[in-house]
Amino acid sequence: MSIVDANIILRYVLDDHVELSPKAADILEQYAATLPMEVACEVVYVLQKVYAVNRKDIQQQLSNLLDEKLVDMDKPAIFLKALEYYRTSTLDFVDTLLWAYHVIERQDVFTFDDKLRKCLQRSDQSM
Hints:
mainly alpha, two-stranded parallel ribbon, 2 strands, 2 domains, single chain, elongated
């Protein structure tokens, strides 16, 4: 099993480098690669803040990585649920991950962040 870093995922998703993008594709297509959650968070951040990719496209592109079995993750259901909520919310991606842990695994989340706390409370009311 191999672990990929953010640069491999970014070059693959963005397909923006003549030399590195095809190498990234080869790595993802030929090896059983794991995408750690920490790296996924970095990828989302860079796509949004550096490359100005919209949330809908981020959600679609990163979901496709899992759907196409190009990467594996420890908790793919958490990641996909977080991406789904991230797509339509104004929360940062890490906050949507915390929300997903709360919704899927019923984890208690302690936070001073009012926006996240309100989202968690709304989720509790709908469960």
